[in-house]
């Protein structure tokens, strides 16, 4: 299965080689562990966003891998359904087979139907998953499976599965949207020239990538200043400039109002004015409007506010090979004055890879670094007052804040 061959893009989630040993009762066989590694590698091919990255591998009664699936984003088939569909399309009989999944199979009838029932209907009798689904509407799949007589085990490679979706779990727990922050910048980190021009810093390929992202998010956010200077439409458009079928909610953050004739109103008027300068308050309002995946597009003060608050889960930088030497800096200050407090990020190999070449640009893909483990015992009183929104600084005081 090609999905199993961990590519360079998925470095860090590479599967161990499968053996063909039959499944054994306890706790997990080498074949089961290898299947989970394959499921993790497959999961990493999906896009980050409103839904978690999930992979699934169907394993035959002889321990052989029959099919691999993964989730391609909100509204598409879940990983289990994808793997089962592939096996069924290949004419395989899955009765008595096992399925190894990186997240508890869902139990809800969302846009794609409950995976627990799909597993039961396929005749699969053995389910192994890594971590429970914390998402209220989806949780409970394990109970449904057990009630139907399916053998269910969990906690295999739980740490890796938690790490894969670390920030998604955080967002779900905080009841806020998953936040992707986008910066289109020059080599010297400028997002606009000193005369205010910023269209287009990026290559057509980067713009197309950005519009594809716009097509699958729930909302896009800019500051009032960007609306007043650029008068953007903020729609998802194809290469011919035509609007896609699915459009994100367009949100504007700041105290000033949106001019009546601003292009952002568009034909549908699907615009939300967030009369606040507080990123947490903005996320609360967006969550209440049903937004589960937000892209923050700019400008520099909005980007900086979300980064300073530790409320960015995924960072995408389109880096153009140009220099301006002056103009609007991508970031205008994060409240950091010493290197020990620098925010730490790590290259994200999931969802297309850490680095892609898009035309003449580089697309850099990062996520907040895993919080450092304090070297010395931490004063509980200090941690209880630390915000969970400053997860990736190196200073001893902030490292204790957790993620
Ligand atoms: N290259 C790119 O990817 C890109 C993308 C977008 C924009 N841009 C460029 O960015 C430039 C605009 O950047 P900008 O920084 O001047 O404006 P901005 O970030 O778009 O908007 C700043 C305004 O947002 C409001 N605001 C809301 N929350 C805030 C907070 N926490 N802190 C500060 N202000 C907050 C304030 O207005 P109120 O007084 O209304 O509260 C503030 O004046 C433009 O030149 C635009 O072309 C580039």
Short description:
This protein has 403 residues and is of the alpha/beta class. It has helices at 30-43, 79-89, 115-122, 141-147, 158-164, 166-174, 204-214, 224-230, 279-288, 300-308, 380-385, 396-399; strands spanning 55-59, 65-70, 98-103, 126-131, 151-154, 178-185, 190-192, 219-223, 249-253, 271-274, 293-298, 314-319, 328-329, 345-347, 355-358, 361-368.
Description:
The protein has 403 residues and is α/β, with parallel strands linked by helices. Helix content is 26%, strand content 20%. The protein is built from 12 helices and 16 strands. It has helices at residues 30-43, 79-89, 115-122, 141-147, 158-164, 166-174, 204-214, 224-230, 279-288, 300-308, 380-385, 396-399; strands spanning 55-59, 65-70, 98-103, 126-131, 151-154, 178-185, 190-192, 219-223, 249-253, 271-274, 293-298, 314-319, 328-329, 345-347, 355-358, 361-368. Strands 6, 8, 9, 10, 11, 12, 14, 15 and 16 form a 9-stranded mixed β-sheet that branches. The protein has a 5-stranded mixed β-sheet with strand order 2-1-3-4-5, sandwiched between helices. Helix 3 runs parallel beside helix 4. Bound molecules: NADP nicotinamide-adenine-dinucleotide phosphate. NADP nicotinamide-adenine-dinucleotide phosphate binds at residues 183-184, 191-192, 196, 198, 201, 222-226, 229-230, 253-256, 277, 297-302, 305, 328.
